[in-house]
Design brief:
single chain; 296 residues; mainly alpha; MetI-like fold; 2 domains
């Protein structure tokens, strides 16, 4: 006589919902902890910039804002660090903005043109050119910094915007990303453009550039932050305060413990955070779309 098959108990909806709720609480708790760990140092710097130098010099770490914000920010914006005769923060931020913007625009312009040539044109040595560009990914700025400095120095470009920007303007990473995107453009679209009488430049302007808008926006955010945070190359190439960038200025403000105006250092740091944060916030939608969009 066949044995009866035991009935399988149906899952309890209430228990499943409770497990999902616990998992959500754990996930959100980890996220909140991460936000706190990230935001707390920023908050301390922001609060410290609103107190006087004596309070920070005594080793006190206030958690609430003080009453010296206006005078501290006005002083660093117009004077910088007076103890070391630093240039005004407004000038340093202008230098950093010029460098970051021109590096970003230059990288995108050169990369999209070079990737367009490699992806859509057939010429002898095409793949050799591509691999020559790709191999430079293994040669970061730190590896080639001394010969690059020698070339820039021989050309008389020390303490100039040209010397700051041109050596950093090429980007193998952006070229690779654009090429990989161009390979996803259907051949039918290319053939249709040819049948309509579109030449290479018209196809590039009317088809390739509009399709690449989100990619360019994503790269703009990444490359702007990259250019803004440059330290080693500006440190070598600038000896004049007139072309000093904000990152170099912050480092030079920090001297001996007793001789550092920490409230001014913190105020300068807060001001230096604003442009990259503004770029990320303003271009967040295009940045995310350029990274995750798969349907072109």
């Amino acid at each position: 006589m066949p044995q009866a098959v035991p009935a399988i108990a149906a899952p309890d909806p209430a228990a499943s919902e409770a497990r999902r709720a616990r998992a959500d609480w754990i996930t959100h708790g980890i996220l909140v902890l991460g936000v706190v760990l990230f935001a707390l140092p920023v908050w301390l710097v922001l609060v410290g910039s609103t107190h006087d130098a004596a309070t920070i010099g005594r080793g006190e770490v206030p958690l609430l804002p003080g009453g010296h914000a206006a005078e501290t920010y006005a002083a660093v914006w117009t004077q910088g660090d007076t103890r070391r005769a630093q240039v005004a923060v407004s000038t340093m931020m202008f230098n950093s903005a010029v460098m970051a913007l021109l590096i970003t625009i230059g990288k995108i312009a050169i990369s999209i043109v070079s990737a367009y040539a490699v992806a859509f044109f057939s010429f002898p040595g095409r793949m050799l050119c591509f691999w020559a560009i790709f191999v430079t990914l293994m040669l970061p700025v730190e590896v080639r910094i001394f010969p690059t400095f020698q070339v820039v120095s021989d050309l008389g470009l020390v303490n100039t915007y040209t010397g700051l920007i041109v050596p950093l303007i090429a980007s193998a990473t952006a070229t690779l990303l654009f090429r990989q995107f161009f390979l996803t453009i259907p051949d039918e679209l290319v053939e249709a453009a040819k049948m309509d009488g579109a030449g290479p430049m018209r196809f590039f302007k009317d088809v390739v550039l509009p399709l690449s808008a989100t990619n360019m926006a994503a790269l703009f955010v990444i490359l702007f932050v990259y250019g803004w945070n440059q330290y080693l190359w500006p440190l070598l190439i600038t000896t004049s305060a007139d072309v000093e960038t904000i990152v170099i200025g912050i480092v030079k403000m920090i001297g001996a413990e007793a001789d550092t105006e920490w409230n001014r250092v913190m105020a300068t740091t807060v001001l230096a955070l604003l442009p990259p944060v503004a770029v990320v916030i303003l271009m967040q939608r295009w940045f995310v779309k350029g990274l995750v969009e798969t349907e072109k």
